[in-house]
Hints:
Elements: E1 6-11, H1 17-26, E2 33-38, H2 43-53, E3 58-60, E4 66-68, H3 72-83, E5 87-98, E6 104-106, E7 111-113, E8 133-136, H4 137-142, H5 154-163, E9 167-180, H6 190-206, H7 212-232, H8 237-250, H9 256-270
Parallel strand pairs: 1-2, 5-9
Antiparallel strand pairs: 3-8, 4-9, 5-6, 5-8, 7-9
Helix pairs in contact: 6-7, 7-8, 8-9
Amino acid sequence: MKPLEIIVIDDGSQNNAAEIITHNLSNQTDIPIIYKKKENGGPSSARNLGISLAKGEFILFIDSDDELLSNSIEWREEILGAAGEDYASIFCSRVECIESKSNATFDVLEIDGELDVCLVGRKNGIPGQITHYLFRKDILIEVNGYNESLRFNEDFDLIIRIAKIKMFRGINKVGFIQHIRKDSWSKSDPHIAFNGVEVFLKNADQYNLLPKNEIDQRRKENTLSLVKKLLLERTSLRDIVPYINEAFVIIKPKNFREFLLFFLSKILKRL
Protein backbone atom coordinates (compact mmCIF):
# COMPACT_ATOMS: atom_id res chain seq x y z
CA MET A 1 0.00 0.00 0.00
CA LYS A 2 1.34 3.40 -0.99
CA PRO A 3 0.88 6.48 1.19
CA LEU A 4 -1.55 9.07 -0.13
CA GLU A 5 1.22 11.68 0.04
CA ILE A 6 4.60 12.41 1.58
CA ILE A 7 5.10 15.77 3.30
CA VAL A 8 8.68 16.95 3.90
CA ILE A 9 9.15 19.82 6.35
CA ASP A 10 12.56 21.50 6.37
CA ASP A 11 12.80 23.19 9.77
CA GLY A 12 15.22 25.95 8.88
CA SER A 13 18.24 23.92 7.75
CA GLN A 14 21.33 25.79 6.59
CA ASN A 15 21.46 24.04 3.20
CA ASN A 16 19.12 22.78 0.50
CA ALA A 17 19.88 19.07 0.93
CA ALA A 18 16.26 18.22 1.84
CA GLU A 19 14.96 20.04 -1.22
CA ILE A 20 17.41 18.24 -3.52
CA ILE A 21 16.53 14.84 -2.04
CA THR A 22 12.81 15.60 -2.32
CA HIS A 23 13.20 16.65 -5.96
CA ASN A 24 15.16 13.50 -6.84
CA LEU A 25 12.63 11.29 -5.08
CA SER A 26 9.76 12.98 -6.90
CA ASN A 27 11.27 11.82 -10.18
CA GLN A 28 11.29 8.21 -8.98
CA THR A 29 7.74 7.80 -7.64
CA ASP A 30 4.15 8.67 -8.49
CA ILE A 31 3.39 9.46 -4.84
CA PRO A 32 2.75 13.22 -4.44
CA ILE A 33 5.56 14.81 -2.43
CA ILE A 34 5.06 18.19 -0.78
CA TYR A 35 8.16 20.12 0.31
CA LYS A 36 8.00 23.11 2.65
CA LYS A 37 10.86 25.05 4.21
CA LYS A 38 10.22 27.20 7.26
CA GLU A 39 12.14 29.18 9.84
CA ASN A 40 13.58 27.00 12.57
CA GLY A 41 10.98 26.52 15.27
CA GLY A 42 11.64 23.02 16.54
CA PRO A 43 9.98 19.68 15.84
CA SER A 44 6.58 20.66 17.27
CA SER A 45 6.05 23.56 14.89
CA ALA A 46 7.34 21.49 11.95
CA ARG A 47 4.89 18.69 12.68
CA ASN A 48 2.01 21.11 13.17
CA LEU A 49 2.72 22.52 9.71
CA GLY A 50 2.68 18.97 8.34
CA ILE A 51 -0.69 18.34 9.99
CA SER A 52 -2.14 21.48 8.40
CA LEU A 53 -0.96 20.40 4.94
CA ALA A 54 -2.05 16.75 5.16
CA LYS A 55 -5.05 15.65 3.11
CA GLY A 56 -5.40 12.04 4.26
CA GLU A 57 -7.39 10.41 7.07
CA PHE A 58 -4.29 9.08 8.84
CA ILE A 59 -0.94 10.69 9.69
CA LEU A 60 2.39 9.05 10.46
CA PHE A 61 5.29 11.26 11.63
CA ILE A 62 8.84 10.29 10.67
CA ASP A 63 12.07 11.97 11.74
CA SER A 64 15.04 12.17 9.38
CA ASP A 65 16.82 9.33 11.20
CA ASP A 66 13.86 6.92 11.18
CA GLU A 67 13.45 4.11 8.65
CA LEU A 68 9.99 2.62 8.06
CA LEU A 69 9.69 -1.07 7.30
CA SER A 70 8.07 -1.83 3.96
CA ASN A 71 4.61 -2.82 5.22
CA SER A 72 4.54 -0.64 8.33
CA ILE A 73 1.86 1.77 7.13
CA GLU A 74 -0.34 -0.94 5.64
CA TRP A 75 -0.85 -3.17 8.68
CA ARG A 76 -1.20 -0.27 11.10
CA GLU A 77 -3.77 1.49 8.92
CA GLU A 78 -5.75 -1.72 8.51
CA ILE A 79 -5.98 -2.30 12.28
CA LEU A 80 -6.74 1.32 13.16
CA GLY A 81 -9.36 1.61 10.41
CA ALA A 82 -11.14 -1.50 11.70
CA ALA A 83 -10.97 -0.35 15.35
CA GLY A 84 -13.45 2.48 14.88
CA GLU A 85 -13.44 6.19 15.60
CA ASP A 86 -13.17 5.76 19.36
CA TYR A 87 -9.55 4.80 18.70
CA ALA A 88 -7.16 7.67 18.01
CA SER A 89 -4.03 5.71 17.21
CA ILE A 90 -2.17 2.44 16.93
CA PHE A 91 1.43 2.05 18.10
CA CYS A 92 4.11 -0.53 17.30
CA SER A 93 7.55 -1.62 18.54
CA ARG A 94 10.91 -0.61 17.01
CA VAL A 95 14.46 -1.66 16.32
CA GLU A 96 17.12 0.71 17.64
CA CYS A 97 20.35 1.07 15.67
CA ILE A 98 23.14 2.98 17.42
CA GLU A 99 26.42 3.76 15.67
CA SER A 100 29.10 1.14 16.37
CA LYS A 101 26.69 -1.04 18.38
CA SER A 102 24.50 -4.04 17.61
CA ASN A 103 20.80 -3.51 16.92
CA ALA A 104 18.26 -3.98 19.72
CA THR A 105 14.51 -4.56 19.53
CA PHE A 106 12.36 -2.61 22.00
CA ASP A 107 9.05 -4.26 22.82
CA VAL A 108 5.89 -2.35 23.69
CA LEU A 109 2.96 -3.16 25.94
CA GLU A 110 0.06 -4.60 23.96
CA ILE A 111 -3.16 -2.78 24.83
CA ASP A 112 -6.67 -2.35 23.49
CA GLY A 113 -8.48 0.54 25.12
CA GLU A 114 -7.53 3.35 27.50
CA LEU A 115 -3.88 4.25 28.07
CA ASP A 116 -2.32 4.30 31.50
CA VAL A 117 -0.65 7.68 31.01
CA CYS A 118 1.87 6.91 33.77
CA LEU A 119 3.40 4.29 31.45
CA VAL A 120 4.06 6.71 28.58
CA GLY A 121 7.79 6.74 27.91
CA ARG A 122 8.46 3.92 30.36
CA LYS A 123 10.60 0.91 29.41
CA ASN A 124 8.41 -1.93 28.11
CA GLY A 125 5.43 0.36 28.63
CA ILE A 126 3.79 2.87 26.29
CA PRO A 127 6.28 4.27 23.75
CA GLY A 128 6.97 7.98 23.95
CA GLN A 129 8.53 8.42 20.51
CA ILE A 130 6.02 9.57 17.91
CA THR A 131 7.17 7.34 15.01
CA HIS A 132 5.62 4.41 16.88
CA TYR A 133 2.17 5.89 16.24
CA LEU A 134 -0.25 6.12 13.35
CA PHE A 135 -2.87 8.78 14.15
CA ARG A 136 -6.25 9.80 12.88
CA LYS A 137 -5.79 13.31 11.52
CA ASP A 138 -9.07 14.62 12.96
CA ILE A 139 -7.91 13.76 16.50
CA LEU A 140 -4.67 15.66 16.03
CA ILE A 141 -6.69 18.68 14.93
CA GLU A 142 -9.14 18.26 17.82
CA VAL A 143 -6.34 18.56 20.41
CA ASN A 144 -4.72 21.46 18.47
CA GLY A 145 -1.66 19.41 17.53
CA TYR A 146 1.66 19.79 19.27
CA ASN A 147 2.40 22.20 22.10
CA GLU A 148 5.03 24.38 20.41
CA SER A 149 6.32 25.74 23.72
CA LEU A 150 7.86 22.34 24.52
CA ARG A 151 11.31 21.35 23.25
CA PHE A 152 11.51 18.03 25.10
CA ASN A 153 8.88 15.34 25.77
CA GLU A 154 6.61 17.07 23.27
CA ASP A 155 5.61 13.63 22.00
CA PHE A 156 4.70 12.55 25.54
CA ASP A 157 2.53 15.64 25.91
CA LEU A 158 0.62 14.99 22.66
CA ILE A 159 0.05 11.30 23.42
CA ILE A 160 -1.17 12.01 26.97
CA ARG A 161 -3.56 14.76 25.85
CA ILE A 162 -5.07 12.46 23.24
CA ALA A 163 -5.31 9.61 25.78
CA LYS A 164 -7.59 11.81 27.89
CA ILE A 165 -10.31 11.61 25.22
CA LYS A 166 -9.65 8.56 23.03
CA MET A 167 -8.47 4.93 23.11
CA PHE A 168 -5.35 3.30 21.64
CA ARG A 169 -4.25 -0.04 20.22
CA GLY A 170 -0.76 -1.29 21.00
CA ILE A 171 0.74 -4.08 18.87
CA ASN A 172 4.11 -5.60 19.76
CA LYS A 173 5.28 -5.78 16.15
CA VAL A 174 8.26 -3.87 14.73
CA GLY A 175 7.24 -1.04 12.45
CA PHE A 176 10.43 0.97 12.01
CA ILE A 177 14.15 1.27 12.68
CA GLN A 178 15.44 4.21 14.69
CA HIS A 179 18.98 5.25 13.75
CA ILE A 180 20.67 7.11 16.62
CA ARG A 181 23.63 9.39 15.93
CA LYS A 182 26.41 9.91 18.45
CA ASP A 183 26.30 13.65 17.79
CA SER A 184 22.65 14.03 18.81
CA TRP A 185 22.28 17.66 20.01
CA SER A 186 20.07 16.64 22.92
CA LYS A 187 23.02 14.70 24.38
CA SER A 188 25.63 17.43 24.01
CA ASP A 189 24.84 19.36 27.21
CA PRO A 190 23.03 17.42 29.95
CA HIS A 191 21.41 20.62 31.24
CA ILE A 192 19.56 21.07 27.93
CA ALA A 193 17.65 17.82 28.32
CA PHE A 194 17.20 18.34 32.07
CA ASN A 195 15.68 21.80 31.67
CA GLY A 196 13.52 20.66 28.76
CA VAL A 197 12.01 17.80 30.75
CA GLU A 198 11.40 20.12 33.71
CA VAL A 199 9.36 22.44 31.45
CA PHE A 200 7.29 19.47 30.28
CA LEU A 201 6.64 18.31 33.84
CA LYS A 202 5.66 21.82 34.95
CA ASN A 203 3.19 21.96 32.05
CA ALA A 204 1.88 18.46 32.92
CA ASP A 205 1.31 19.59 36.49
CA GLN A 206 -0.42 22.80 35.45
CA TYR A 207 -2.87 21.02 33.13
CA ASN A 208 -3.29 17.82 35.18
CA LEU A 209 -1.88 15.60 32.46
CA LEU A 210 -0.23 13.26 34.97
CA PRO A 211 -0.94 12.39 38.62
CA LYS A 212 1.07 14.40 41.13
CA ASN A 213 2.98 11.36 42.40
CA GLU A 214 3.99 10.47 38.83
CA ILE A 215 5.19 14.01 38.17
CA ASP A 216 7.28 13.90 41.37
CA GLN A 217 8.73 10.51 40.39
CA ARG A 218 9.71 11.80 36.95
CA ARG A 219 11.22 14.96 38.42
CA LYS A 220 13.33 12.84 40.75
CA GLU A 221 14.41 10.56 37.89
CA ASN A 222 15.21 13.55 35.69
CA THR A 223 17.38 15.09 38.40
CA LEU A 224 19.21 11.85 39.13
CA SER A 225 19.75 11.38 35.39
CA LEU A 226 21.44 14.78 35.31
CA VAL A 227 23.59 13.75 38.32
CA LYS A 228 24.70 10.59 36.51
CA LYS A 229 25.64 12.53 33.35
CA LEU A 230 27.55 15.14 35.33
CA LEU A 231 29.46 12.41 37.17
CA LEU A 232 30.39 10.81 33.84
CA GLU A 233 31.64 14.22 32.66
CA ARG A 234 33.72 14.44 35.85
CA THR A 235 32.03 17.63 36.94
CA SER A 236 33.13 18.92 40.33
CA LEU A 237 31.34 17.04 43.12
CA ARG A 238 30.56 20.32 44.85
CA ASP A 239 28.60 21.37 41.76
CA ILE A 240 26.70 18.08 41.69
CA VAL A 241 25.69 17.94 45.38
CA PRO A 242 22.84 20.51 45.06
CA TYR A 243 21.18 18.33 42.40
CA ILE A 244 21.50 15.24 44.59
CA ASN A 245 19.88 17.09 47.48
CA GLU A 246 17.13 18.37 45.18
CA ALA A 247 16.32 14.85 43.94
CA PHE A 248 15.85 13.51 47.45
CA VAL A 249 13.81 16.48 48.58
CA ILE A 250 11.32 15.57 45.84
CA ILE A 251 11.16 11.90 46.93
CA LYS A 252 13.27 10.28 49.64
CA PRO A 253 15.85 7.59 48.76
CA LYS A 254 14.24 4.23 47.99
CA ASN A 255 17.09 1.75 47.41
CA PHE A 256 20.70 1.05 48.35
CA ARG A 257 22.23 3.13 45.54
CA GLU A 258 20.05 6.10 46.33
CA PHE A 259 20.85 5.93 50.04
CA LEU A 260 24.56 5.68 49.20
CA LEU A 261 24.33 8.75 46.99
CA PHE A 262 22.30 10.57 49.62
CA PHE A 263 24.85 9.97 52.41
CA LEU A 264 27.75 10.80 50.07
CA SER A 265 26.17 14.18 49.36
CA LYS A 266 25.81 14.84 53.10
CA ILE A 267 29.50 14.03 53.67
CA LEU A 268 30.62 16.24 50.80
CA LYS A 269 28.43 19.08 52.02
CA ARG A 270 30.30 19.12 55.34
CA LEU A 271 33.76 19.21 53.79
